[in-house]
Amino acid sequence: MSTKQKTIEKTKAIEIIEFDNADPEHARAFYELNAKWIEKYFKIEDIDIKVLSNPQKSIIEKKGYILFAKINNKIVGTVALSPTKKDEYELHKFAVNENFQGYGAGKELIESILNIAKQHRAKNIYLSCNTMLHKALSIYRKFGFIDSYTPKNTKYKRCDISMELSL
After folding, report:
1. Top-level CATH class of 3-123?
2. CB contact at 8 A, 46 and 55
């Protein structure tokens, strides 16, 4: 077991924080976490660059939310939630650093973002994904998302599945 893993296990502290445009680390972490997983499996698309390069304009100013998971004061994961209709939201840009997977950061992020959706009286949340991303799909299913094999409103070429959750 590495020193990093021992430190994480010792603290077990996952802190969930909101995106702060005044903190340059937030925009950088949002870009890097998402770009890394996309590049591992797919190709970054123009829409990715647009959203990741300016999360304030692409998500926050459109009444969306971005959350981060921090372990030992290091941002290790992120997720976004964007309104699409009056009572519908899209969950997107969910990524956890590979070195920190398995510690519960992804679970904490999804729980927190779903709580925000509930506070805003969302009735439906959808997401677009790819069937080869087994870990992500498993997490979504644990939270009650149901598969819909016809991608819904997807802007991404890599997506071949949509999932929905009724609240």
Report:
1. alpha beta
2. no
